[in-house]
Amino acid sequence: MKIGELAERTGLAPSRIRFYERIGLLKAVERQANGYRSYPDDAVLVLKLIAAGQNAGFSLEELRTLLPSDLASWEHGTLLQTLRRKVQDIEALQAQLAQSKAHLVELMAQIEAKPEDMDCAANARRWLSEMQLAGAEGTPTPWTRRRS
After folding, report:
1. CA distances from residue 49 to 45, 58, 93, 116, 117 in whole angstroms, order as listed
2. pLDDT tens track for 11-69
3. CB neighbours of residue 53 within 10 Å
4. What gap in Å lies between CA 33 and CA 48, rounded to an integer?
5. Half-sphere exposure of 4 (CA within 13 A, CB side)
6. Which residues pair with 37 in a beta bridge?
7. How many helices (H) and strands (E) does the chain have?
8. Based on the number of CB atoms within 10 Å of its own CB, is 39 exposed (0-12), middle (13-18) or buried (19 or more)?
């Protein structure tokens, strides 16, 4: 099939398909005598897998190692292990984002707790001195905890 039909069947732009071919994610592309690319039917599946993988958070480099050269030779165990590892990565990112959110909520609370007669700069100094005092006493605050 030609690139136009492949683009139509996958919803990808021809330039994106050529890019995937150029970086080695899409293989088994033949050139006709006139220079046109000729794609096998399984190219549709490969491109849909690439798009689904990217939507799931896989980088192109991760997909390069995940996708076998021949779809019939996919190793079940390796695939599951890779997917589980990706889920763990996402869970770690979620925990980091939750911690960042907590820090921002705490900062907003400190800013909103500013006394009426105090300007913003003085409030910042007040809040920073409280943080330093808490840190000197060994009391962890969202801003003095170590990130792991």
Report:
1. 6, 11, 23, 57, 60
2. 999 999 999 999 989 887 888 888 888 998 889 999 999 999 999 989 999 998 888 87
3. 19
4. 28
5. 1
6. 31
7. 6, 2
8. buried
